[in-house]
Amino acid sequence: MAKSSKGSQYERDTCKQLSLWWTQDFEEPRDDIFWRTSQSGGRATTRAKRNVSTAYSQGDITFIDPIGSPFIDTCLLELKRGYTKDIEVLNFVDKVKGEPILVKWWTKGEKEREESGRKWTMIIFRRDRHKSCVMISSSMVKEIEMFYDTYPYNYIKVKRIPTTFKIFLLTDFLEHVHPEFFTREN
User: What's the pTM value of the predicted model, to 2 decimals?
Assistant: First the structure.
C-alpha cells in the first residue's frame, strides 16, 4: 500500500474511532460525526494566503455533524502515519541537525491552531506496526487533571522551550477523557 493511501485510510479509521468515542453514550453510537478536511487542511492554507478564512477547514479532521462541533471548536487535530524510523526519544537529546519530527509536527500544529482560534492542538500519530498515540500540551493535561481529579496514564513528557507536551496511547486518552470535557462550560 502506498504511503499516501496508508495515511488516507488511517485518517478515515481515526475519524470513525473518534466519532464512536464522541457518541459512546448514545443508544446507537455513530461513526459519522468527524471526517477528513478538504485536502487535509490544504484548502484552508491556500485560502489563508489570500487572507480568506475557511471555517472548520484547518487541520486534518473536522465535523460533518454539528454535534461534533464542541470538539473541533476546541481542538485542532493533525494526523500522521508512518515515520517509524524518524520518531526516536533520543532525538530530543542528541539530534545533530534540525528539530525532531515530533517538534516539527507540534510547531506546525500550534501555528494552525492559532490561526484557527482554537484552544488546543492534538497530534494523533501511528508508527508502522505500532499503536496510535496522541500528543497534547501540558496545559491541556492540567485542565483534564482539574476536571477529573486525576490523569492516570503512562506517558512521555517532552519539555521543549517554549512548550511542553505529553504523549499518550490514543486508546488510553479516549478511555479516560470523556467527551463531556469538551462540552463543559469553560
Answer: 0.86
